[in-house]
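Design a sequence for this backbone.
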């Protein structure tokens, strides 16, 4: 697949088939993440790959936090109900991946660390899509960060940055969200070009 097609074709997937993802495929995707550029070539990203009970516990946290934020059952819109279903099950994905970085207090180094791991995560998302898999970059569940750290057994010296479910998408439910850009040119300032 052409790289630009992969970049433009990837979507956040919120409904997954229950089919298991082969471990070799997960490794291939993580290997792509591991090839990202990193500040000072530190490559200080780490991945927690979980399934079954641990995945369900992560989904329980996100489901509960989502339910707390939306109206009572009788007052919910269809969209809110659908979002809650996604949150409570992580869309039925068989795998969840947590992205970690080394803890860093110094603001400039922290910024560098976060950019490095974000590059790795985007590689992961794109590689997964190229393998026919779905993902959804998620920071919402971090509202329950302490609980998630405990469920995923995140070491003390690591920061949990985000998570993604991983699995085969239910193709009929892939949503292509509208672009927010009013026109790419309005986001670019050309300097020194005619
Ligand atoms: C940093 C970040 C955090 C996100 N957190 C969540 C989240 O907590 N829950 C969720 O359902 N989607 C989350 N998303 C997915 C975005 O909603 C999604 O990328 C956006 O709507 C565009 O859709 P697309 O990924 O299909 O292009 C997140 C994306 C990013 C980059």
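Sequence:
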């Amino acid at each position: 697949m052409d790289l630009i097609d992969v970049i433009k074709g990837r979507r956040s997937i919120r409904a997954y088939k229950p089919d298991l993802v082969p471990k070799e495929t997960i490794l291939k995707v993580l290997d792509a993440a591991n090839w990202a550029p990193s500040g000072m070539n530190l490559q200080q990203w780490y991945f927690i790959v979980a399934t079954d009970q641990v995945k369900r516990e992560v989904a329980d946290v996100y489901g509960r936090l989502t339910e707390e934020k939306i109206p009572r059952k009788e007052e919910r819109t269809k969209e809110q109900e659908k979002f809650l279903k996604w949150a409570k099950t992580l869309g039925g994905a068989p795998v969840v991946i947590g992205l970690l970085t080394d803890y860093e207090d110094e603001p400039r180094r922290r910024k560098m660390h976060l950019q490095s791991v974000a590059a790795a995560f985007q590689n992961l998302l794109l590689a997964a899509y190229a393998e026919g898999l779905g993902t959804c970059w998620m920071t919402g569940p971090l509202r329950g960060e302490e609980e998630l750290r405990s469920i995923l057994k995140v070491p003390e010296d690591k920061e949990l940055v985000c998570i993604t479910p991983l699995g085969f998408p239910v193709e009929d439910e892939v949503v292509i969200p509208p672009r927010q850009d009013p026109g790419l040119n309005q986001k670019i300032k050309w300097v020194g070009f005619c």
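DSSP finds six helices and four strands in the chain.
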